[in-house]
Design a protein that fits this description.
globular, D-amino Acid Aminotransferase, Chain A, domain 1, Rossmann fold, 306 residues, 9 helices, 30% helix, five-stranded antiparallel beta sheet
């Protein structure tokens, strides 16, 4: 691929709840690609006319900076396969399975990867009482950026209702794991490093992720070396179990509340992680000596269709 003669289209925005995050990722990636000397970089705010836009601008390759449903769940990937335009990140199957949290958990379990115990219930099931003993976590089955995630503790009155739960009738409930939040970036099947994420909010929710000063990233994570190695191994195995490619990120809970070494639990894999220079994946790349323009350039060079 001749960098100076290659036209890269950066897909961003879309209409999911994660649109603002995607716009930020897309703009930063586009700027970095221009800095790295790619011949032409076109920013595309994705709408339902995307196929026509791509046909009009005729890119050689797509950098997918979308987050959330449609951009991250295999739909956009399928369209790009049909149009024959190589794209970054995972393909249709890995994207679809990773976005569906219960299905991904089933795959992880079959590969011997420990996740928090959980099950899918309906909104109506909450009328019959709590779906499991608290504390537990309520999650949408197919959203990112912690949208809709709620920790239910003993004595709470919270329950999702149709008028306040815009994520469909299916709800994932999981046992709450006390302890610490860890994350591991995986690039082409190789784990990069372990970051611990702390937040004064007490929970790494949407505001903690994206508000100014909402979280602190400790890199490398101050955890025992055995836990670091385990997290990196599990992240790489999770990546392979779904058939991911390019860059992804695995999120964990590390329960050391009863002492070291503690227990590590895989929460999920994110096939379209945030991509601003201060996002978790670029931070880990920088820790390894890989600049942001170099990171996104290598991702474009590795782009392909299914």
């Amino acid at each position: 691929m001749n960098r100076g003669e290659t036209h890269v289209a950066v897909l961003m925005g879309g209409w999911s709840a994660e649109r603002p995050v995607s716009l930020s990722s897309g703009r930063e990636c586009a700027a970095a690609l221009r800095q790295a000397g790619w011949g032409k970089v076109t920013e595309i705010d994705v709408d339902r006319g995307l196929a026509a836009k791509l046909t009009a601008v005729k890119p050689d390759v797509v950098f997918n900076a979308l987050h959330g449903p449609v951009g991250e769940d295999g739909n956009i990937q399928g369209l790009l396969n049909i149009l024959g335009i190589p794209y970054t990140h995972s393909g249709v199957r890995a994207s679809a399975v990773a976005m569906d949290k219960p299905t991904a958990k089933d795959v992880f379990a079959r590969h011997g990867l420990r996740c928090p115990e959980g099950r899918v219930v309906t909104l109506a099931d909450f009328d019959e009482g709590e779906p499991m003993a608290p504390p537990y976590v309520v999650k949408p089955i197919d959203q990112g950026s912690s949208f809709g995630v709620h920790i239910v503790r003993a004595g709470d009155n919270y329950r999702p209702t149709a008028d306040a739960w815009p994520f469909g009738d299916a709800v994932l409930v999981e046992r709450y794991i006390a302890g610490r939040e860890l994350t591991v970036a995986v690039w082409d099947g190789e784990a990069m490093e372990v970051t611990e994420i702390t937040s004064t909010r007490g929970f790494y929710d949407y505001e903690a992720k994206y508000a100014e000063g909402g979280s602190v990233h400790l890199l490398p994570a101050p955890v025992p070396e055995a836990i670091r190695r385990q997290a990196m191994d599990v992240a790489a195995r999770a990546y392979r179990s779904l058939g991911c490619r390019g860059v992804s990120r695995c999120d964990f809970r590390y329960d050391d509340t009863a002492g070291v070494p503690g227990e590590l639990y895989l929460l999920e894999i994110n096939t379209q992680p945030g991509m601003t220079p201060t996002s978790l994946v670029p931070e880990q790349a920088a820790h390894l000596g890989i600049s942001f323009p170099d990171l996104v350039s290598r991702m474009v060079e590795d782009a392909r269709c299914d």
